[in-house]
Amino acid sequence: MNEPLIINKQDGSTDAERYLSGLCSRSFLSLWSYPGVYRNQGTQGSGDGKEVCDLLIVFGNDVIIFSDKDCHFPTSGELDLDWSRWFRRAVMKSADQLWGAERWLRQNPGRIFVDRRCTQPIPVALPESDKLRVHRVVVAHDASRRCRELLGGSGSLVIFPALSGRAHVAGPFPFPVGGDIYEAWGNGLRDRTGYSKTVLPFAVGDLDPSKGFVHIFDDTGLNVVLLELDTASDFVAYLLDREQYIRSGRLIMASGEDDLLAHYLTEVDGFSWRSFLIPDDPQAQVIIPEGHWEQLQKDSAWIARKRADEASYIWDEIIERFNSCILDGSSAAYPIVDFTSQELAVRAMAREPRLHRRILSSALEDFMRNRHADAIIARVVCPISPWSPYYIFLAVQPDAEEDYQHYRAKRWAIAQAYLIEAKRKFHDAKEVVVLATEMPGWSKWASEDLIYRGNEPLRANEEESAQKYIKYIEEQGILSRIRDRFEAEVLEYPSA
């Protein structure tokens, strides 16, 4: 018997932290997003926990550490001094926290808690240190407000990869005054504000090339990126590509995070590159101008893509229903499988990027419109990519006068039988996910079960326990149709 695991997460201690938590819960969903995690200073439960970071995302081998600083941008009249003070407090101090948090996670993965008293360990296991892939994110508030006041535009901080370490606050700027790059930004700053120092405010680069890369997001950049790349796979892929691009030496300047994102999402033949375009000429370098994001949002193909994506959020809603029940201990699967097994199942679904979710939602909606007279109906969706699972959508009709508990137990066993048979038939299946439910109108209930199997071989007792329902399915002639496949051709950027 697997006991329910009830998790009481923190909400964040400031408005900014609560806003960050809400954004990340929307993108990463609640099972993998933990605001305000702590390390125990003494014994477990002693109540003297110290905060490790403002928000921790644990999604498989990817761990994202957030440090959120809501520091007021001063207005002393000395812009270089105001910028330096704000940058030290909001960015450098946060980066130090991130590097320290990473050390602790690598050295003490079992000593991370969701409460200050350190009584409740984080339920999602951290990967082993050699598999851990850390992404460090500073969220620095209020500079974009000041930047908009002085310069207009979106207020997003300019990205200058050549800026490094103390050059952010003490100069000199790594390009000569009067050079083309300085002309593009520094002269514009002087024209609008009268500022003429070589310390460049509202510009960020690589904080310390000798350490793990730190992503710096202002208010504008954070909103744009997390609202656009709102799945774990999409956001992590962006962080990886962004780090590589900024450290490649090929990017000279991006006028803001929003314009950098637009460059990343450039459409080509119906699909986006989902990568940063690097010129073939090894000597060529890239400048990303202001207004690229604004222009992209007006593009007809872009608008059509956003419209097409609306249906994909059905997939998110299903995942979050399972997540909520797992976290509050009400999951119907708890007597049968533990937290870790359930997390693996929903993570397989959550690993799908937005485009895949559009395809899967379409397949599921089409399946649920099925009006066959059979008591058991199933559909197979083959892997959309090499790392996607086989999905089996399964609907089981309750018998007349059947009580709810008996029906759920029966449906779970039938779903298990389908999973076992799928593992037998699809020899290339690295993972199989069975999503079981009932068709609309079949009963007064509305319930779902999720069963998952990875690469591990089937156990003898699993096959024995499923034999009864495998025979039942074979008698109905349905198992023979498990080879039926849903196929669709989908463009990320459909015709407008």
Order of strands in the sheet with most strands: 1-2-3-4-7
Low-confidence stretches: none
The rounded Rg comes to: 26 Å
Number of strands: 15
Ends apart, CA distance between termini: 53 Å
The SS-based structural class is: alpha/beta
Q: Summarize the biggest pleated sheet.
A: 5 strands, mixed
Overall tally of structural domains:
2
Order of helices and strands: HEEEHEHEHHEEHHEHEEEHHHHHEEHEEH
* Shape estimate: globular
Tally of helical runs: 15
As a percent range, the share of strand residues is 15-25%
Question: What's this model, at a glance?
Answer:
The chain has 496 residues and is α/β, with parallel strands linked by helices. The protein contains 15 helices and 15 strands.
What does this structure look like?
By secondary structure, this protein is α/β, with parallel strands linked by helices. It folds into 2 domains: 15-298, no CATH class; 309-481, no CATH class. 40% of the residues lie in helices and 17% in strands. It has 15 helices and 15 strands. It has helices at residues 15-28, 79-107, 143-151, 167-170, 180-193, 219-228, 232-246, 257-264, 292-297, 300-309, 313-328, 339-350, 354-368, 404-425, 460-475, and strands at residues 33-39, 50-59, 62-69, 133-140, 158-164, 203-206, 214-217, 251-254, 267-268, 271-272, 286-288, 376-381, 390-396, 432-437, 449-453. The strands form 5 sheets. Strands 1-2-3-4-7 form a 5-stranded mixed sheet, with helices on both faces. Strands 12-13-14-15 form a 4-stranded mixed sheet, sandwiched between helices. A hairpin with a 2-residue loop joins strand 2 (50-59) and strand 3. Helix 11 runs antiparallel to helix 12, helix 11 (313-328) packs across helix 13 and helix 14 crosses helix 15 (460-475). It starts with 14 loop residues before the first helix and ends in a 21-residue tail after the last helix. The mean pLDDT is 85.
